[in-house]
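Bumping with the actual sequence this time:
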Amino acid sequence: MSEAKKVTGVVIFGVLLSFLLPNIISMNTSKSLETENKRETQTETTNATIEEVAIATKEDESGTPVVEQPVTPTEPVVQETKEPEVQAEPIVYDGMTLNELAEKLNRSLKSTLSNTGMSFAKYSVEMGIDPYLAVAIVLHETGCNHGTCSKQVRECYNVGGMKGGPSCNRTSYKKFNSLDDGIYSFMNNLKENYYDKGLTTPEQMNKKYAASKAWAGKIHHYINKIKAT
């Protein structure tokens, strides 16, 4: 080959190389960058996975990893407030509660015996005595229904003409320490000496309680007045 042809070939190769070399360098650079980006992405993904696993797991006492289940947020439980149940008062006598019975008896109890209806109502229910009958006997024996109660009631709290000691003003009638004490003793006397012996009506009580045969009729008169109030 002639020297001129060699020179010409070198020049042409140089020109071609000058055009191809930048493209080759650019391609290599792009591949390097792409490879580097893939490595960085894989590294970030791996690190994120490791962090998630580390957060989502913990070790038990033996060192075994335990995966915690994700906690689902729950709405707060609202407890219903129930209204307290109101207990109805029991019926104790003649379709009435204890308070209603006491109020009814109070309408017939005057003077010194005013507002003692609860004592008569309470003791009659406790002892199983007809409260109308008990109050009727008291009204007949004391005169409280007509105005001023007898001296036995006012000074000695004797509401049923009961005999015994200590003496009330040196009489055969008994003196009590309080009005409630006198009412209780009168009611207890009806229970032990009459009701417990089967004497539960004015007619059955008449002979033992009073000498007058008209006593039972008068007691019925007061019973009807009490019922009507």
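The tokens above came from a reply further down the thread. The chain has a mean pLDDT of 81.
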